[in-house]
Amino acid sequence: MRLDRPIHLLATRRQRGFSMIEVLVTLLIISLALLGTAGLQAYSMRLNQGGQFRTQAVFLVADLAERIEANKAGAVAGSYVLANGNVPNPLSNACVGADCGFVALATFDLSQWQNAIAATLPQGSWTVAQTVVGNPTTYTITVSWVDRQTDANYAAFDNTAQTGRDATGTGERFFYTATRTVFN
To answer: How far is it, in rounded angstroms, from Cα 109 to Cα 93?
Structure first.
């Protein structure tokens, strides 16, 4: 080695670039990182949609509870009771431009509410039950829907027992229940 040349020139002469193996290993690491990020993003989006369904269920139950509170005469008379169902009544607009009685208002409210559930929640179903103890009447409002579709098979949903998954046995059924007490 000649000492009359600067040392930095000698060092650069020995470096000839990356080998093909180093480039392939780097590409493999980057590819795995991108695949992991894509999987995490897909999982996040699925959970985000589940959160949206839960939020919609809370809003829909609160909406009916407020309608029950606003129509106390209909609530005390039991006009808001609904059996377990998942097919909405025909969309009513009977009380939109005209006055209507408390029974017609309850029918209108339930029609609007059922159609909102059917349009918002996947495989949505509902139950509204009334419990009367003296003056106050209490309504228990339950909404359910299917979320988190999977490849696993579960027992088909049984409406009577309120157990199982969805009709095909591939999703998970979620429930949200709230109560509202009305004093006359």
So the answer is: 10
* Nearest one of 64, 86, 67, 76 to 145, comparing CA atoms: 86
Q: What is the dihedral of CA 39, 41, 47, 49, to 10 degrees?
A: -120
Return d(Cα 11, Cα 166) in angstroms, integer.
69
Could you tell me which residues come within 8 angstroms of residue 129 by beta carbon, excluding any fewer than 6 positions away?
Answer: 81, 139, 140, 142
Report residue 115 as tokens: 């159609």
Three-class secondary structure assignment of the chain: CCCCCCHHHHHHHHCCCCCHHHHHHHHHHHHHHHHHHHHHHHHHHHHHHHHHHHHHHHHHHHHHHHHHHHCHHHHHCCCCCEEEECCCCCCCCCCCCCCCCHHHHHHHHHHHHHHHHHHHCCCCEEEEEEEECCCCEEEEEEEEEEECCCCCCCCCCECCCCECCCCCCCCEEEEEEEEEEECC
Half-sphere exposure in the Cβ direction for 104 (13 Å, CA): 9
Provide the whole-model pTM: 0.69
Q: What are the pLDDT digits (tens) for 97-121? A: 888 899 999 999 999 999 999 999 9
| 64 CB neighbour count, 10 Å cutoff | 25
Compute and round to an integer the Cα radius of gyration of the chain: 30
141, two tokens: 């409002």
